[in-house]
Amino acid sequence: MNSNHLNKQQTGGYKRRDFLRNTSIALGGLAISPLLLNALSGCGNPDQKNQEKQADQAPQPAKLTRKLGQFDVYPVGLGCMNAAWGYGKPMSVQDAANLFRGAADQGITLFDTAEVYGPFLSEVMVGEALSTIRKDIIIASKFGFDIGSDGKIKGLNSRPEHIRKVVESSLKRLKTDYIDLLYQHRVDPRIPIEDVAGTVKDLISEGKVRSFGLSEAGAATIRRAHAVQPLAALQNEYSVWSRDPEGEVVDVCEELGITLVPWSPLGKGFLTGTISPSAKFKEGDRRSTMPRFTKEAMENNWAVVELLKKIADKHSAKIGQVALAWLLARKPFIIPIPGTTNPEHLTENIESAKIELTTADMKDIADAYSKIKILGERGAPDVMSLLDIGAKGGTSSKGGHGLSVPKG
C-alpha cells in the first residue's frame, strides 16, 4: 500500500468544522451464535422530546457521496452479514461473491462485515468478491467476541492481545493487508475503552488499520474512546421504528464529527412491507426469537409500514426505499448499511440514495409515527444486556463512564 496514501488517512475522525463543510451528502448489524442470538437488537419508542426536536428539521438533500472519516463513499453501504448468517441457510461463497461484486459494479463503495458473521464466513465472501478491486472499495470489519473452536460465541473479548489476533486472521480472510475501518463490535465492560482505542491506534500506525469505530456505544464511551483515537464511525441500530440513537448518540456524533452508520436500517426486513404479520420464520432465522417479530407485535407495528407506503406512493418508490431515504434525510453524516441476498433488492437499496424526501414528507412521517406505540423490544434480554449505557433506549450515560470499566 502507498505509504503517502496511508499517512493521509491515519486519523480516524476529523474536525467538526471540516466534517460539516465536507459532508454535503449521505454505514451492523451484529451476528451472534445461539448463546447470544439476539445480541444485536434494541428497544421501543424514542424519547418524545428528541422526536419533537428533530421532526421539523428540513431534510438533507440527496447527494451521491458522503464522508466516512477520511473516505468518500456512496450514501448507502452494503451489510454483508445476511449472506452468511442470521436469516437461514447461508449463500455459497461464490453466489455471495457475485452479489457483492455486483454491488460494487453498481456504485457501492462501503462493505461491512465482521469475524463473528458466520462466524468467519462473511469475511471470506468479501475477500473472494473484492480482492481484485481492493483499492476502489472500503472494507469495514469488527472484533470483540470470544469465538470458540466450535464456532460458538463464549462472550465478549476486547483484550489488546485478542484484538491483534483477530485483525491478523481477518486480514487473511479478507485477502488484504489493511482494514479501512475497524469497529469494536460491542463494548467490553472488563476492558477500559482507552486500552481498546490505544490498541487500534497502534494498529493504525502499523498500517494494518486505517480508521476506528465503535458499535452500540453510548455518548460517554464514545467520548472516552475518541480522546485516545478519533472515531471515524459509530454503528448503532437506527431506523424508522428503532429510534434509540436519538437519545444521545446522534448529537454526540454531530458534535465530534463522527459518521453514524445505522445497521438494520430496514428493520430486519419489516420496513420493506414484504413481511406479512402472519409470517412464520424458519429455523436459523434470528427473527423467530425477537419480541418485535411475534404475530401480535407485527400486527400492531404494521402501522409503520402503512405510513411509509403513503410516502412511497407519492414518490413512485418502494416502501423500503423510503425507509432508507428517511435516514439519509435526517443528517448528512448518516450512511445506512442494509443487507440483502437478493440482487433486485440490492438495486432498490442503491437507488434509494436518489430519492429526495421533502420537508412535508418528513413531517408527515413524524406526525404519523408519534401516534404509534411500537410493540416489542428490538432484541431479547440477553442481547439487550450487551448494549452500552446510552445506546439502549431509555438509558443515559450523562455523568457516567458507560459500561467500560474506568481506566486505572
TrEMBL record:
CDD domains attached to this UniProt entry: AKR_AKR13C1_2 (cd19078)
Domain NADP-dependent oxidoreductase: 76-368
Signal peptide: none
Top-level taxon of the source organism: Bacteria
Keyword Ligase listed: no
Keyword Hydrolase belongs to the record: no
Disordered, as annotated region: 43-62
Organism: Pedobacter panaciterrae
Alphabetically ordered keywords of this record: Oxidoreductase
Protein name as it appears in the record: Aldo/keto reductase
